[in-house]
C-alpha cells in the first residue's frame, strides 16, 4: 500500500522561501498553493522557483533592448517626466479659488499644438473614439470605408467599438478602393441619418497595389463632420522639434496639425505612441463638438488622473518650446546617431569582455509607420541568453534572439543603462 507523503506546514515552507524578496503574506499564499498542488510543487526548490516567477510578474522598470522603440508590452513610450509627491490643482482654479476644469489647461495646450479650437484628454485613443461616437453619433449612422473597418492591435476593432458606442456602422466602398462618390451615395440614400464620417488610419498594416482611399481634403467637402482617428499622435508632419527634415520612416504617417488643416472636424490620437507621453487619448478640433464630448456622461468614466495630465502638460510644453527632441525619450531615441550608438556598443563589449557590434534595424513600434525601419546598432552575443537577461537581478533586460545569437539593440536603451547591460552580459558569458 503506497502512502502519500506528508506535506510540510504552510509556515515552514513559507519561511524556506524567505530568500525571495516578497512580503511574508505573499509567500504564505504561494506556499499554500504549492502544498495544494502536490509533492512535486511543495519541495523547497519548487516553492522558491514559484516565488521567483511570482516576483518576475510584478511590474518593474526594465531595459528595453529590443529595438522596438514603442513596445506595447513594455508600456510604449517611456515616461518622460517625474513629478513631486504633492497635491495637484487638477480641478482647482488658482485665480478664483473655486472648482476648475480638469480639461482646461492641458486641453488648451493641445489645441495650440494641433492648431485646433479645443481639445480634451481621455485614458487612451480607444476611449477617445468611443467617446466621440457616443457623444456625436449615438443611434445614428457613421460612414466608414470598408478598407478602414479594421482591427488594430489587442482588440480595437472598429465595428465593435462602433457597436459599443451606440452608433450604427455603415460600410462604404470596397476593401481596397473607396471614393468620395461612395460616401456621397450613402449620404443620399433614403432614410439616411448620418451623424459623421469616421476615417481610421489603418496603423499596423498596409494594403498595397490597386488601392485608393479618400483623403480628408475630399471628405471635408461632405455636409457632415469628418472625424479622423490618426492613431499615432504625430503632432506635425514637418517635425520642427527635430531641427531638420522629417525622418524618412515617418512618410505616410498622418499628423495632427495637417489633418485638421485639411479639414477634419475632429481628430483623435494616442498619447503614448509617436507623441511620446503617458497612456492617454486626445480629442482635438471643433470647439462645440469637443464641448459635447466633455459634457457626455461617459467622459467621467474615461477621464485621466492628475499625474497623467501633468505629464501630458509637460509633453505639450516641450513640443511648444521645441525642446521635444531632448526632453521626450522617444524622440531622443530617434535623434541619436548611429555613430553615438557604435561608440556605446564598443564600450559595452569592452567592459563585458564578450560580443561584437553589428548593424541592426530598429522599428518605431506600437503600430506606428508599419513596415518601416530605423537604422540602428546592436551588441551581438553568441547563444540565447534571453531568459538570463530577463532574470537579471539589478533590472530585467528584454532583448531578442535569432540564429543562435542574442541581440541588444542600443537605440531603445538609455545610455545610462549601458553599464548595467555590460555587467549582465559579463555574467551571461561566465
Ligand atoms: C493605436 C491606435 C488605436 C488604439 O489606441 P490606444 O491608445 O491604444 O487605445 C486606435 N486607432 C488607431 C488608428 C491606432 O493607431
Provide a concise account of the structure shown.
The chain is of the alpha/beta class. Helices cover 37% and strands 18% of the residues.
Structural features, described:
The protein has helices spanning 10-16, 24-37, 39-42, 44-57, 104-114, 125-137, 158-165, 180-188, 216-219, 256-261, 287-295, 298-301, 306-320, 324-327, 329-335, 338-352, 386-390, 418-429, and strands at residues 63-64, 68-70, 118-122, 141-145, 151-152, 156-157, 168-172, 194-200, 226-231, 266-270, 281-285, 356-365, 374-382, 397-398, 400-402, 405-409. The mean pLDDT is 93. The strands form four sheets. The chain has a seven-stranded mixed beta sheet with strand order 3-11-10-9-8-4-7, with helices on both faces. With 430 residues, it is of the alpha/beta class. The protein folds into three domains: 13-57, no CATH class; 63-78 and 331-429, Aspartate Aminotransferase, domain 1 (Alpha-Beta Complex), CATH 3.90.1150.180; 104-323, Aspartate Aminotransferase, domain 2 (3-Layer(aba) Sandwich). Strand 15 (400-402) and strand 16 form a beta hairpin. The protein contains 18 helices and 16 strands. Residues 124-126, 152-153, 156, 200-201, 203, 229, 231-232, 270, 281, 367 line the site of pyridoxal-5'-phosphate.
